[in-house]
Write a structure and sequence with these properties.
The protein is of the alpha+beta class. Helices cover 29% and strands 26% of the residues.
Length: 70
């Protein structure tokens, strides 16, 4: 799992954090949204979960340069 603040928010308490994730099995949109809501509530921040395979190739290097392994 990797994370980066969305839109360069750099550790702001109000930042939305995007987590690039790999799933062990296919997940439905309902499961993905449920996991986002659970993590947002548990962490007290807005969380976006994005399957890493959906990373656009032309943005990959820019995005991965900002990630923090968690």
């Amino acid at each position: 799992m990797f994370s980066a603040p969305t839109f360069g928010a750099k550790h702001s308490p109000k930042a939305t954090w995007t987590f690039w994730v790999d799933f062990l099995r296919p997940v439905s949109l309902l499961e993905l949204v449920g996991a986002e809501l659970y993590l947002s509530e548990a962490l007290g921040i807005k969380v976006d979960l994005v399957p890493r395979r959906s990373l656009r190739p032309e943005l990959r290097n820019v995005i991965l340069s900002q990630v923090v392994p968690v």
